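BACKBONE STRUCTURE TOKENS:
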Amino acid sequence: MTVLGGSIGSGASDKRYRLCQLALQERVPLVMMLEGAGHRVTDAPKAIEVIGARLRYTEAQQKEILDHFIAGGSLTAGGILHAVTSAAQVQDDGDAAWDLETSALDALRLAAAL
């Protein structure tokens, strides 16, 4: 599948988002290679604050996601997705980890729309 040469802009992310939803629904593995510049996140703290408010992340989770976003070095909407899933892996509470992990696609979509 191609998405405008790898762009993660708001229009191009719909196809990828739907594919991820189907994989989650069918409980099958999905490997994605995110190429290209993607939708750039120019104000990461503000973006994560907005996404965190929409997805009801705690302040501690937002800080953890920001730390992972910066450490990941991919300053794109895809980087937000990776930061959310990375932050989920270090949660002490299993339910909180699950909630973060399953919200990553919504975080990607919101980041691409900013």
The first helix runs from residue 13 to 26. Residues 1-8 have pLDDT under 50 and may be disordered. The chain has five helices and no strands. Helices lie at 13-26, 44-55, 59-72, 77-88, 94-113.
